[in-house]
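Good day; I would like, with your permission, to put a structural problem before you. What I wish to show you is a protein chain and, alongside it, a tokenised description of its three-dimensional fold. Please examine both parts with care and let me know of anything in them that strikes you as inconsistent. Thank you for your consideration; the sequence and its tokens are set out here:

***
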Amino acid sequence: MTDDDFDVGGRLRALRAQAGLSQRGLAEKAGVPHAQISIIEQNKSSPSVSTLRKILGGLGVSMSDFFDNDRLEYQAGPFFEANGLIDLTSRIRSPGYLSLRQVGDAKAYDLQILHEVYGPGADTGEVLLQHASSEGGIVIEGEIEVTVGHLVRVLRAGESYLFDSRTPHRFRNVSSATAVVISACTPPYL
């Protein structure tokens, strides 16, 4: 099976069964509608980053583990080649192109560092992200709309953000150019 053939629904179904949860039980733990679990497991719909993260939270599984269950070792570091970053999102269909690539083993260092690329229209999802972490980032290229609680701002290259991730938040590219962000989060959440 190639990366393009990754079965998101099948993987979710297997993890849910392994956890001994019904679709309804997982939906309750994750705080999502029961039908959403069923639709994703049947591959009738591809979840947004925020929705998938919420569902995986109900299973206690990170996105890194969800997509790379066969990888037993991370590149040791302390230095990493550009092609050595761990792809967390290429298997998620979303509006616009969205890529989140992680540096090394975030769990081992209790720090997640991401190289984020948002194509025009890319969005982490209408369901706002929320997790027990702190996060910050710097826009390297383009511009990105960042929502933190009731505050919304378009940040341009050179501008940055830092906030308590328990506050609901969202990232989306509302421009016609690609946006690149370097971010960090502790403890890791993806």
Remarks:
- The chain has six helices and nine strands.
- The beta strands are 86-87, 98-102, 112-118, 134-141, 143-148, 151-156, 160-164, 169-172, 179-186.
- The two ends are 23 Å apart (CA to CA).
